[in-house]
Structures are given as structure tokens and as C-alpha cells.
Amino acid sequence: MPNKFSWIVLTVVLMGFSCDSNQIFDEYKTVPNQWHKDSVMSFTVTPPDSTQLYNLFINIRNTNDYKFSNLFLIAEIDFPNGKIVKDTLEYQMAKPDGTLLGEGFTDVKENKLWYKEAVKFDEIGPYTITIQHVMRNNGEVEGVDNLEGITDVGFRIEPAIN
């Protein structure tokens, strides 16, 4: 009988950890094999409350095939009324010894990367967020055509907590 009780407790605990009350929006796009430099990941979201502040995150899942210590991205937010905000971003993806950063027990690591803090979506309608990599090898002018090791690109919105 204690064995059955242990399974019930374990199931309840796992269900509690799997629920994420912070997320307003959380979506991933799978990268097939390699992330081509012209492949733009696009997310469309209609925020629920135009009076609240939100934190925005870019989520990246990568494997040991990722060969760089950093990641350069261009992220763009297209507002419903036509305004566009474009950012060039750099994120550290590995320690100096080459160990990949991120969460995960297998060779797939998940990185929750800060994008914007305390954002107010004050325009009514859908917002489109696009994310594109702009990686290059050291000393080369041309960008990396196909970025290896990225398996998924995601976008997440959480309420900003004061």
C-alpha cells in the first residue's frame, strides 16, 4: 500500500511543477536540421490586458552541435498600428571552457533569454514578433548560412512582477 501512495504523491508533485502560472504566451517553432540565415521565426500574439506590464523572453533549445559561445539575433516587434521595433541582440551560450549554458539533463539545453522588461502592449490587436539569427564566423564578413545545433526557437510573455 505505501508504494501506491508514493506514486500518487509523485504524480501530484509532478503535475504541480508542470503547471506554469506565469506564462501568458509560450510557443516554440522547430528548426528543421539547421537554422538558415533567411529563415525567420514568427509568433503572433494578442496580449490579454493593455494596462499590464509584461516581460518578454526568447527561448532557445540547442544541442552539443552548437559550435559558438554566443548567439546573435535580430528580433522585431510589429505593432498592430504599424510601428516596428527592431533589436540586435547578443546572448552568451557557453562558458569560457565551452560548456553549454542552459537547463537540461541531456545534450539538449534550454535557454530562457531576456528580451524586454516591463513592456506595455497598449495597442489593440495582434502583435507579430520575428526572430532571425545573424551569426558569423570570426574574421569573416559573410554570415553563417546554416546554423547547426539550434533545435527550437520560442517566444514567451510573462507578467512583470513589481
TrEMBL record:
It comes from the Bacteria. Keywords: Lipoprotein. Pfam families: GldH_lipo (PF14109). This is Gliding motility lipoprotein GldH.
